[in-house]
Amino acid sequence: MARSSDVASRPESVTRFEWLSGSLVAFCLACLLVTVVAGLVQVRFGSYEMTRMEVLRAVFDADVLFDPAVWSAFLLGGDLPSLDTRTLVVWTVRMPRVIVGVVAGAALAISGAIFQAVTRNELASPFILGVSRGAGFAVLATLVVFSGLTPFLPFLAALGGAVAFLITYLIAWKDGTSPVRLVLAGVIVNMVFHSLQRGVYFLADDIGVVQSAIAWLTGSLTGVGWEQVRIATPAAALAIVLALVGARQLNVLLLGETTARSLGMRVERTRLLLSGVGILAASAAIAVAGIVSFFGLVVPHIVRNVVGTDYRRLMVGCLFAGPALMVAADVGARLALRPAQIPVGIVTGLLGGPYFLYLMRKQQSMGEL
Asked: Cys-Cys link to 126, which of 257, 296, 312, 343 (CB 3.0-4.6 A)?
């Protein structure tokens, strides 16, 4: 009784954030440290040689950090004020790649966590519901058949992923949807779009186009710049905010449809809206980074093993773990075989596959959340 009265007397701000735990804070700080270190390593190396101190001076150059005109040129486009050569190399060539990695990593991790809750299946990811194949087909069709639309490739990729998911949802609909029907419908849509992708390859007569398409479908951050930052950031930021706001609803969805309805939740509407948030996040990442395999599937598992299954913690953990793993993987993709670069999707696939196999062997049961 005394315990109940103590809880009732606690300030609302305390009870609202009581889910914040020491392990979550420590995990986020560790991920932030990994992101910063990997980012500094990323901007350190390149065809223009610089020492460590020169890189640090360029990164923390006051002419960039405190000049609104520079940030306006970065974030809105336009002419860039005169800058030191080293600062120019770091901030216009190398730093955008780190920022795009941060944005894409956070968006893919958040998207994967959402789909695993919506389907109540820990094997779900942004790609198992047809998003990746739909985006890939849109990319191939644009490069091979509608080459005049190439400048709009990121938007068309996002549109293809969204259309594929809508088809998945319509196939799964039968007086409502269920996690099992969504996953099965996603498998069907994946197979159809994969066949369509193969068909488009036969229409290509330029090996350069095929190589570009393969690089996109593998997932790569090579050549990204501030334009990609401007493309991905608004949609990713909106999706992340909505995902954090919807974390409580995701917790309720995990209790099962019957329990969720008894608690007053409109299950189908909530599932569709949260799926839309997941699609928005995945599309923002795919539009600039291509299809990075295993990322949306594995990162939520890593975070869940550290901070637990409460989606308020899980979402915050994914927000920090996604950028750390994406930027670190991209450093490996860029520097492991210097001077050659490999797509970051190959690195995530090589690391994510064995890790997921380890999880399967470690856990007694795997599948339904």
From this structure: 296
- Checking 359-367 for CB contacts under 8 A at 24+ apart, the result is 359/301, 366/122, 366/123, 367/121, 367/122, 367/123
At 340, give phi and psi (nearest 5°): -75, 150
Angle at 187 between CA 142 and CA 274, to 5 degrees: 85
- The 10s digit of each residue's pLDDT in 342-369 is 888 888 888 887 887 777 777 665 555 5
Can you give the pTM of this predicted structure? Answer: 0.86
Output the CA torsion sign for 218, 224, 228, 233: positive
Give 365's contacts (C-beta < 8 A, 6+ positions apart): none
Q: Tokens 């789909």 correspond to what residue?
A: 115
Residue 105 · residue 345 · CB < 8 Å? no
Spatial separation of the C-alpha atoms in residues 201 and 211, rounded to whole Å: 11
- pLDDT score for 366: 57
CA distance 309 to 299: 13
User: Could you tell me the maximum CA-CA distance found in the chain, to the nearest angstrom?
Assistant: 78
Q: List the one residue out of 33, 128, 103, 32 whose CA is nearest residue 367.
A: 128
Q: At 155, which helix (H) or strand (E)?
A: helix 153-172
Are 55 and 90 a contacting pair, CB within 8 Å? yes
pLDDT at 3 over 50: no
Beta bridge partners of 368: 121
Give the model confidence (pLDDT) of 302-348 as tens digits: 998 898 888 999 999 999 999 999 999 999 988 887 777 888 888 88
Identity of the residue numbered 275: S
Please report the DSSP string for 46-88 in residue order. SSS---HHHHHHHHT-HHHHT-HHHHHHHHH-SPPPP--HHHH
Tell me the C-alpha distance between 31 and 68, whole Å.
Answer: 29
- Distance (Å, whole) CA 186 – CA 174: 15
3-state DSSP assignment of residue 337: coil
> Which residue type is seen at 314?
L
Encoded tokens for 232: 């991905």
The phi, psi pair for 368, rounded to 5°, reads -80, 135
Q: Where is 8: in which H helix or E strand?
A: helix 2-9
* Structure tokens belonging to residue 204: 């290509």
Least Cα distance to 270 among 176, 172, 355, 138 occurs for: 176
